[in-house]
Specification:
ADP-ribosylglycohydrolase fold, mainly alpha, 15 helices
Length: 259
């Protein structure tokens, strides 16, 4: 989960200033957490407390109204009668990493990922993106090799994962769709040799960089079984005490205990 948050923070300054290189500073003074982090922590909070994903996201989201939500999500967030809005966007995938780290069967992962998505992103692509991301994390943390992850996710979700980061980078541009983000984020992980390399791959595609890196970061953390300490330290400096407390509690309950 901290891997997803770190990806969001690292990618935050390139969301509207896309780059096509892996040679960039991981952090500078403009780095910040965005809606990707806020809603990832909200999903973790829902799991910890047993509250609904909707209640947790709406409470957490309202505490951070300037985090960078999309227009439809803002309307949902502040509505008196929130309803899913058939989104096929990548928002359901960027917030789902706690699900992948918590549950211990493929069936549970798919069910909970779907529940976390459908409160807003009830379009089939929105649900599929969340499920593919969470299941990738589950496979990564339970010892699957990259070849097996590529095969399983391709077959289950119909994503073309036979491309490389270098091939994608040539023509890729900003894309907020789930189907135009999740496969590319997974490939960024598959083509990496470390957590940091995965994040650099994702940002270098020149797209929706914070979300790409957030999705990639969750999978990479699960596979490489850690996030470099210098990255974790920067993330901890940037998060608010509230977000950090929930993150730490989640780790104690669901990640540290399992390792």
């Amino acid at each position: 989960m901290i891997g997803a948050i770190a990806g969001d923070i690292i990618g935050s300054i390139y969301e509207w200033r896309p780059i096509k290189t892996k040679d960039f500073p991981l952090f500078d003074q403009r780095c910040r957490f965005t809606d990707d982090t806020v809603l990832t922590v909200a999903v973790a909070d829902a799991i910890l407390t047993g509250r609904s994903y909707q209640d947790s996201m709406r409470e957490m989201g309202r505490k951070y109204p300037d985090a960078g939500y999309g227009r439809s999500f803002i309307q949902w967030l502040f509505s008196d009668n929130p309803q899913p809005y058939n989104s096929w966007g990548n928002g359901s995938a960027m917030r789902v990493s706690p699900v992948g780290f918590t549950f211990n069967s493929e069936e549970e992962i798919l069910t909970e990922a779907g529940k976390s998505a459908e409160i807003t992103h009830n379009h089939p692509e929105g649900i599929r993106g969340a499920q593919a991301t969470a299941l990738s994390i589950f496979f990564a943390r339970t010892g699957y090799e990259k070849k097996s992850i590529r095969s399983e996710i391709s077959q289950r979700f119909g994503y073309n994962l036979d491309r490389t980061v270098d091939q994608i980078r040539l023509t890729y541009s900003f894309d907020v769709s789930s189907q135009g983000t999740v496969p590319e984020a997974i490939i960024s992980f598959l083509d990496s040799d470390s957590y940091e390399d995965a994040i650099r791959n994702a940002v270098s595609l020149g797209g929706d960089s914070d979300t790409l890196a957030c999705i990639t970061g969750g999978i990479a953390e699960a596979f490489y079984n850690s996030v470099p300490e210098h990255i974790v330290a920067k993330v901890r400096d940037i998060l608010t005490p509230e977000l950090l407390k929930i993150t730490d509690t989640f780790y104690l309950e669901y990640i540290t205990r399992k390792s």
